[in-house]
Amino acid sequence: MSQGFEIKSASAKKSFPSHPQLQEVAEIKAIQQSLVQHFADLKDPRVERTKKHLLTDILTVAILAIIAGAQGWEDIENYGISKKKWLEEFLVLPYGIPSDDTFRRVFEFIDPEALNRCFFRWVETLVTRTGGAIIPIDGKTIRGSYDRNQGKSALHVITAWSAEQRLVLAQMKVEDKSNEITAIPALLELLDITDCIITIDAMGTQTEIAQKIIDKKGNYVLSLKANHPTLYAQVREWFEQAKAHQFSGLDFSYDQRIESGHHRREIRQVWSVPITVISELYQPRLWAGLKSVVMVVRVRHLWNKTTREVQFYLTSLDSDAQLLGRAIRKHWGIENEAHWTLDCTFAEDACRIRSFHSPQNLAVLRRLALNALNREPTYKRSLRQKMKRAAMDNDYLIQIIRSCLTDNILDSSESFCQA
């Protein structure tokens, strides 16, 4: 275990009052021990003479505060001060609650790759493996993390999302002067995607990425757009002609879904065909495992207008419009349930924390909090209401932490994460 990240020693333990809170304190201490176990490899970046506060205390307070809605270092300190009496029951806090500057300095210099590995280790205890799981991968820019004075651009991360379990599986920083095309293979290397369906938007529609997914025994559904102009134009023209003739005499699969809600009605039509049906498809051998091509037509009837959108996809799956339509639909979960939530509920884009490693480390803690809140099933309210209740009700916060730290410990060979 790394120096500075320790469980409270026997000599430092505080005496518990003999009342019903004893059981609660014992439970939260067990949860803290589980937290320490998951983050045991995290090294304290401070020099010895500056270690007034234990790293385990700093990390625990920060995680609890972000679950409860904290958006910056002052919020985290304020949460600690407000909950000091409760926190003292299971944390050492030898010098009280760390200041906002202490939280800032520690997270500026914690190794973000090490924190990421700890995050992967924690996620693998949560995720249950199921055949055919849909894993959307997409990028997100944390817009407030730029630093104009230092010539530093905003942090861009790519995320792998479990569509069914609503969990962030992994994230990776896109290096400066690079892009998602180079980061996606590195992210895939962290995951066991055997028999899973990887969905990626047009930026990730690259032959090297398709090959990587096939090499790792997964399947892909890749959005085809004008960044592959010859193939895109050929596929679009073929589907237009086939649809005009109602796919007469062709081997195709079709599915239609109609959904209503939020003052709109959407009709989604999906056609898929084996690549053998399209004569002289442009360089199909470059796409490892390519079996089918898909067209999706979305018609949305809003209160004031009607929109129509047509998209095409390449996939290593057999021509099954129902399955493919479901995978394509699930891809939007990473935008609606992860990225949108991080922006609107956690205020990630508005956050101006930008120094050193702090934007990347705080992004990891937000995703940890997002997973923790999604794991708690009993309070049937929005994530924002869950956060507010966690801030007000210590028992509910314990319930959130319990649901994501002490259950479902899996063998690593059965996990999505391989880090």
Offer a quick outline of the entry.
This protein is of the alpha+beta class and 419 residues long. It has helices spanning 21-38, 55-67, 73-82, 84-87, 100-109, 112-123, 180-189, 207-215, 229-244, 321-331, 333-344, 358-375, 383-392, 394-405; strands at 134-142, 155-162, 167-173, 197-200, 219-224, 253-261, 264-274, 292-301, 306-315.
Written overview of the protein:
With 419 residues, this protein is α+β, with helices and mostly antiparallel strands. Helix content is 39%, strand content 18%. It has helices spanning 21-38, 55-67, 73-82, 84-87, 100-109, 112-123, 180-189, 207-215, 229-244, 321-331, 333-344, 358-375, 383-392, 394-405; strands spanning 134-142, 155-162, 167-173, 197-200, 219-224, 253-261, 264-274, 292-301, 306-315. Helix 1 packs parallel to helix 14. The relative contact order is 0.14. Residues 1-20 and 406-419 have low confidence and may be disordered.
Fold topology:
Layout: H1 21-38, H2 55-67, H3 73-82, H4 84-87, H5 100-109, H6 112-123, E1 134-142, E2 155-162, E3 167-173, H7 180-189, E4 197-200, H8 207-215, E5 219-224, H9 229-244, E6 253-261, E7 264-274, E8 292-301, E9 306-315, H10 321-331, H11 333-344, H12 358-375, H13 383-392, H14 394-405
Parallel strand pairs: 1-4, 4-5
Antiparallel strand pairs: 1-2, 2-3, 5-9, 6-7, 7-8, 8-9
Helix pairs in contact: 1-14, 2-3, 2-12, 3-5, 5-12, 6-12, 7-8, 12-14, 13-14
